[in-house]
Every structure is written in C-alpha cells, then in structure tokens.
Amino acid sequence: MARFGKAFNELKTGDTFQEALTITEAHLSHAAGLFNDYNALHTDEPNMQRSRFGKRIAHGALTFGLMVGVYSKVFYDTDISTVEASISFTAPIYINDTITFRWEVSELEPKPKLDGGLVTLRGEAINQDGTVTAKTSAKLLVGNDTIFNK
C-alpha cells in the first residue's frame, strides 16, 4: 500500500506545518454535543454577554482537537501513536475568530527497532489579531512507512 503520511526519516528539527480555520456557530454546537459539554461558556449567549468574556467561547477540547487534526493530516498513515499531549489556554476563542494552528518539530528521537522514532512537537493556536490563544505540545511515535504494511 502506498504511504500518504510524512515519514520519521523525512523530518528535521525546525520543520513546521500549519492550517487556519474560522470557528463557526456549528463548531460550538457540534462540540457541545460531541463532548457532552453544555456549559454556559459555550451555549448561553445572553448570559455570556454579561460575563468577563462578553460572548460565548469555544471549548478547550475543540481547540485541542483541531490542533491534533493538523498533525494527524501531516502524518496520516505513519502516525503509530500519540504518546503524550498537553495544552495551555492563554486567551479565549470566539465564534468568527480565524485561528491558525501551527506546529514545529522540536526534537527527533530515532527508534530503529520500531522503524521510526519519537517526534516532539511544540504548537500554538493564534487568532487573526496575532494573539496566542493556546500553547501545545505533543510527542508522537511516527514510522518510516505506512502502518498498514505491518
């Protein structure tokens, strides 16, 4: 089977990849149902207008899921496993914000017995005004070939 994802042996420290997306009402609505999180922060516009945020904000799990989706597309069928992942939220994300989800390869640790290695990523979610809304890190086990040929 042909490989579609980026292989471990094709990476170098400093490689970056990113994607931008405008957050919509549908994102918050779907996230509330998917995560079973109907907190007023995400669902109660009238009361959120009186809050410190001034309007509804996106779910943290939505932000992180969108971040993971960016590297999932890059590695696709070479991503054996996400070993570690974390996120720190630094500013709210609102409906109609356009967020750029950016990752950088910060460390590579070869694992020859696994025909690949560990890839450490550092990431940020940045809104259209240049505000960093989240800082992320992830460690992935990435192969040199598709996971479907094993």
Polypeptide structure, described:
The protein has a single domain (about 10-150), classed as Thiol Ester Dehydrase, Chain A, CATH 3.10.129.10. The protein has four helices and five strands. The protein has helices at about 25-35, 40-45, 45-50, 60-75, and strands at about 15-20, 80-90, 100-110, 115-125, 130-145. The protein is about 25% helix and about 35% strand. It starts with 15 loop residues before the first strand and ends in a 7-residue tail after the last strand. The radius of gyration is 17 Å and the shape is elongated. A five-stranded antiparallel beta sheet has the order 1-3-4-5-2, with helices on one face. With about 150 residues, it is an alpha+beta fold. The model has no long low-confidence stretch (mean pLDDT about 95).
SSE blueprint:
Elements: E1 16-22, H1 25-35, H2 40-43, H3 45-48, H4 60-75, E2 79-89, E3 98-111, E4 116-126, E5 132-143
Antiparallel strand pairs: 1-3, 2-5, 3-4, 4-5
Q: State mean pLDDT (0 to 100 scale).
A: 95
* Helix/strand/pairing category: alpha+beta
- CATH top level? Alpha Beta
Helix run count: 4
Q: Outline, from the CA principal axes? A: elongated
- Total of domains: 1
Q: And the CATH topology? A: Thiol Ester Dehydrase, Chain A
